[in-house]
Design brief:
Structural class: mainly alpha
Helix content: over 70%
Order of helices and strands: HHHHH
Largest sheet: none
Number of helices: 5
Length: 147
């Protein structure tokens, strides 16, 4: 299966898993066809032919066929919904893992910035805890300059 960098990794994994199972590929093909306008056109034509030339009113056989078809099609719709739910679950898991990784990275960056800021502050203030700055008078050689 060719990988598409514009697709979500969870979608690609779900697609690969479905491609390996024949019955799921068949269900996907039926669902895809049943959701197309060709499906509607073919059925409208078949129903018209059936009602005009094959069976006269009240169309009991046609009713039976349409009812059975509805049962099977609703099953295929549920299979499609299960596929979408599985994709949503995989995507949510992937997004959660990616966000947790990003959170860890951001936390490490924030801690590093805090540590560096503390070190810079200590270097600038000569290690004073009260936050006051060093002045010329505080330097060790300040007394020698005045002489």
């Amino acid at each position: 299966m060719p990988t598409n960098p514009n697709r979500h990794p969870a979608f690609l994994a779900a697609e690969a898993a479905r491609a390996n199972k024949r019955q799921l590929r068949v269900a996907d093909a039926i669902t895809k066809f049943a959701g197309s306008m060709w499906f509607v056109y073919i059925h409208a034509l078949l129903f018209a032919v059936w009602m005009i030339w094959i069976e006269k009113s009240p169309w009991q056989t046609l009713t039976l066929i349409v009812s059975l078809e509805a049962i099977f099609l609703s099953t295929f719709v549920m299979i499609g919904q299960n596929r979408q739910a599985e994709f949503a679950r995989r995507k949510a898991d992937h997004d959660y893992n990616a966000q947790e990784l990003e959170l860890r990275h951001n936390t490490e960056v924030t801690e590093t910035i805090h540590r560096l800021t503390t070190e810079i502050h200590a270097a600038v203030n000569g290690g004073r805890r009260d936050g006051s700055r060093l002045t010329q008078a505080d330097t060790p050689d300040a007394g020698d300059r005045g002489r």
